[in-house]
Amino acid sequence: MKCDDCNALLGDPLAWTDADKRAQVIEHLAVCVDCRDALAALEVLHEVREIPVPPPTSGAIAQVVHAATAEERERPIGLAGFWTGLALGAAATGIVAAVSLALFLPADRPEALVPQVTMALHQPGRVSIGIESDEPLQGAEIHVSLRGAIDLEGFEGQRDIRWATDLERGVNELTLPVVALGQGGGQLIVEVYHGNRQKAFFVDVRTQGNDDAA
Amino acid sequence: MASLRLAAGSRQRAKRFEALVRQHYTPLYRVAYRWTHSVEDAEDLVQETCTRAWPRLEAIEQFDRPSGWLMRVMYRLFVDLTRRHDRRRVDELDDALLSTLTSDEPGPDEQAEWTGKAARLARVWPRMDRDKRALLTLHDIEGYTLEELQEITGLKEGTLKSRLHRARVSLGRMLQKDPDLAEIKFISGGVRK
């Protein structure tokens, strides 16, 4: 028996019930110091398995939610009188751009300009897109597509992400962890579908340096 | 120019996030405690993990196994914390969390409750590499399968098997060198120091 075979059996308690396998393991352990050390470790680890984990402190879950959502609660969104694409300035540690786009624009409102955000290369930033709806939309579908040299952190290589969600009346914020991979930047395309209605929003992602030159 | 706070949409989102955290907190905390042997450090690690999940909530909700994504993030946070070549991940954690997580010694209350073999493990555990601790905890203590470990670590099955074996061998040798074990052997020989 080789160490690989013995190692596989050491970690499988059912293997010890097989007399032949047990005999082979014991014969191997008699001559292999490494596997004997591994078995000694497993005995201790299996004993630790039976020791209960102390409970977390009271309110730990509430603290997690509060801490994670604190930045979102405290950040205001500035809006012009008419709904147009609007990019706020970059924060020191990342890029935050709130873009407010009307889902169903009345005829007398101007079309939203294509908003843009500027990011440093290879540094993830959070791009927040506020999708405003005049009415609650249950079962809306969101499609996020990526073009050009950008990616989503945690979803590398995925160019098209879709999911269903409910939109509330008012501003619904979608935050995307964007990474600019090349000087040319790219474009985020966010499409919202509800029944037979659909609207697409475009956000240009530019890179620092490239943006200055422009 | 009017300013507008995030309204009803974000409150609903926060409720969904809370539901996600409640559903997955216990297994995350359990593993984090096994890694750190500290309630405070475990809670900090889980909190940092969930903070990473908040901006990705909509996508995570669509996963077949959100738990796999969460555990993968927590694994990377724990293992990569001391890898100085990756300054970006280290810089993202605030100083308080960083100083807490670099203190690997279990608190006196937590250590005192362990006896026997477990006490021996508590003594040597902080001296083990974090990636070894993480693998041994997930597979040999908490019972995660190799397939689940592949999802969490991104390592292939063959590499995982090899690393698990090396981690067990390393731990076994550290336990053999544990001074109390040597003391017990000496006494059992009939000679007192």
Characterise the protein shown here:
The complex is a heterodimer of chains A (214) and B (193). Chain A has five helices and ten strands; from the N terminus they run ααααββββββββββα. Chain A is α+β, with helices and mostly antiparallel strands and 214 residues long. In chain A, the strands form two sheets. Chain A has a five-stranded mixed β-sheet, with no helix packed on it. Chain A has a four-stranded mixed β-sheet with strand order 2-4-8-6, with no helix packed on it. Chain B has twelve helices and one strand; from the N terminus they run βαααααααααααα. In chain B, helix 2 crosses helix 4. The N and C termini of chain B lie far apart (82 Å). Classes of the chains: A alpha+beta (214), B mainly alpha (193). At the A-B interface, helix 1, helix 3, helix 4, strand 1 and strand 7 of A face strand 1, helix 1, helix 2, helix 3 and helix 8 of B. Strand 1 of chain A pairs antiparallel with strand 1 of chain B.
Question: Which descriptors apply to this entry?
Answer:
heterodimer; A: 214 residues; alpha+beta; 5-stranded mixed sheet; 4-stranded mixed sheet; elongated; B: 193 residues; mainly alpha; 12 helices; disordered N terminus; disordered C terminus
